Amino acid sequence: MANNMVSYWCATIFDNFKGSVVRLGDEKHFYGNGFVVYNDNNTCLILTCQHVLPKDNNGNVVVGSTVGAMFHTGVRFDAQVAYVDVDRDLALLRAYNTVGIPLRFWEYGGIVSGIDVVLLSFFAMKFGQVLAEPGTFPGKILSEPIWNEATRSEEIISDYTSMPGTSGAPVFLQRANRVVGVNSGVISGTIKTFISVRTVEATLREWLQIGDENITIQEMLERIAEQ
């Protein structure tokens, strides 16, 4: 029964949100993933990890540079790097007049160990092939996040299996269909880390230079889209 429920939620997340995940790169290169967090049919904002993006000769991601992107439908478009936070490993891309249903974040309570999550991501297979559609990778949160007040960031540890190239993809709270983080790295084996929603909130506040603790992620994204 438990395995049937996991399969059900993986299928639900795939069916509902596969059109929100973005494959970053071009026809010859696969950088990683991003996902749509805002779209008003004019401006589309895509969140990803900064470490997946192309670097200049000094090893830096350049704000204003262009990154190729593609949805599972095969629709290709260019996105411009709008914001970068190297320390928190986050970047926000801006595209215009493109499709993509924005995902919503889990902003309603704490995250505790044992919670079921699902990673939805494009990934590289053996010999570098990338499938046309994203895959789902279920798992559980292994420990409560620890907030670092100095950096205003936190990572969450999970045990979902993933493949190369999954950085920047959304991690869903299984039964809520909301994003709880951004897949970011591997500690060892099946022990993975993802960037928390609280970290996303703190990063957006810094990018906008606002101190309002009550403003929502959606409201901050709307402000960025209007810039």
From TrEMBL:
The secretion signal range is none
Question: Which SUPFAM superfamilies does the entry mention?
Answer: Trypsin-like serine proteases
**This chain belongs to which protein, by name?**
Serine protease
Gene3D superfamilies with a match to the protein in the record: 2.40.10.120
Question: Pfam families under this entry?
Answer: Trypsin_2
In terms of InterPro entries, this protein maps to: Peptidase_S1_PA
Organism domain of life: Eukaryota
